[in-house]
UniProtKB/TrEMBL annotation:
This is Phosphatase PAP2 family protein. Residues 121-229 form the Phosphatidic acid phosphatase type 2/haloperoxidase domain. It comes from the Bacteria. The chain crosses the membrane at residues 44-64, 95-114, 121-141, 161-180, 187-208, 214-234, 262-283, 295-319. InterPro entries: PAP2/HPO, PAP2/HPO_sf.
Length: 326
């Protein structure tokens, strides 16, 4: 049986060979033996990680918002952010001023344009859906689903989780990671992590958000990014021969740089996470009234935000650069 996209045998002088992972021009997730192909396995991993990131959002809200211990740790860090705020407020405000609705629309348009120029039509749709859905999800969770019970810990009882500004910044980073060619995805991941982390910490410096709000915002975007990768393919939704062309253009230096970036993000992410966890354990048993305790809580929370941001871009980076390992 001949596929509509397969040329007739009398029109070619050599056997027709479809692109890798394609049959009749349609992406395949199973190999000839019926088992999951490498791309299919990567999609399954991306989907599983997306579900895990979504569950982590709920877990962060449950612990830091609905339990007394979580509120105490978060509140001490929130109070610690007031120390030296006058020195950092202007720089933090400069970072936060970038975030706006026009800026978000511009990011979507640029991301879609890049995908279209690469002839990745499904990817172009996925970029717009991902960025829009992540920001809508944050607003629905903050104002519709999540509530903040009054436990006598903090004076501000209005729920502020997840952080909208952090969600915008993280969705910008996610769009860049999703549309970037595999050989440049390491750079998109690094710059995205820096911008997201800077925005998240800036909201804490300005007293706009607690650390848990920032972490939840990052996780919301991570869930949608991984879901987008599961749909379009972890290689960026390559068309026939696209993955092979990207791999041919990717140099050995790009592959080495990607591996170095992965290792760097993993080390910083895990190390920062352990420091933040230790800080949380200490503050959970302290009154949180001394300057030392306030600084420890604030420093631990800031480091924790950096750690979560690094780990958040690590998974899509590893999944999205599989072509470089072929």
């Amino acid at each position: 049986m001949w596929c509509a996209s397969r040329p007739a045998p009398w029109l070619v002088s050599r056997p027709y060979v479809a692109g890798p992972g394609y049959r009749c021009g349609v992406p395949q997730t199973t190999g000839p033996d019926g088992h999951l192909s490498r791309d299919g396995a990567s999609r399954a991993v991306a989907l599983a990680l997306a579900v895990l990131a979504g569950a982590a959002v709920v877990a962060v809200w449950w612990f830091f918002v609905t339990t007394a211990t979580g509120q105490h740790v978060d509140e001490v860090a929130f109070e610690g952010a007031t120390i030296g705020r006058w020195r950092l407020a202007e720089s933090a405000q400069s970072v936060l001023d970038v975030v706006s609705v026009p800026f978000l629309v511009l990011v979507i348009l640029v991301g879609v344009l890049v995908a279209v120029l690469r002839r990745r039509w499904l990817l172009a749709v996925a970029v717009g859906v991902m960025v829009g859905a992540a920001n809508v999800t944050t607003q629905l969770l903050k104002y519709g689903l999540f509530t903040r019970p009054e436990l006598g810990v903090s004076e501000i009882e209005t729920n502020s989780l997840p952080s909208g500004h952090t969600t915008v910044a993280a969705s910008v980073a996610a769009a860049a990671i999703l549309v970037a060619p595999p050989r440049w995805r390491w750079l998109a991941a690094l710059l995205g992590a820096l911008y997201t982390g800077a925005t998240g910490v800036a909201t804490m410096v300005g007293g706009w958000h607690r650390a848990s709000d920032v972490v939840a915002g990052v996780l919301v975007v991570t869930a949608w990014l991984l879901l987008a990768q599961a749909v379009v393919g972890t290689g960026g939704g390559a068309r026939r021969g696209g993955a092979r062309a990207d791999a041919a253009a990717a140099t050995g230096r790009a592959a080495r740089t990607t591996r170095l970036t992965v290792h760097l993000l993993a080390i910083v992410g895990v190390g920062a996470g352990l420091v933040a966890l230790l800080s949380m354990l200490v503050i959970s048993q302290a009154d949180g009234e001394s300057r030392t305790e306030l600084l420890l809580a604030y420093g631990g929370a800031s480091v924790g935000v950096v750690g979560v941001t690094c780990l958040a871009v690590l998974a899509p980076l590893v999944l999205g650069t599989r072509e470089l390992r072929r």
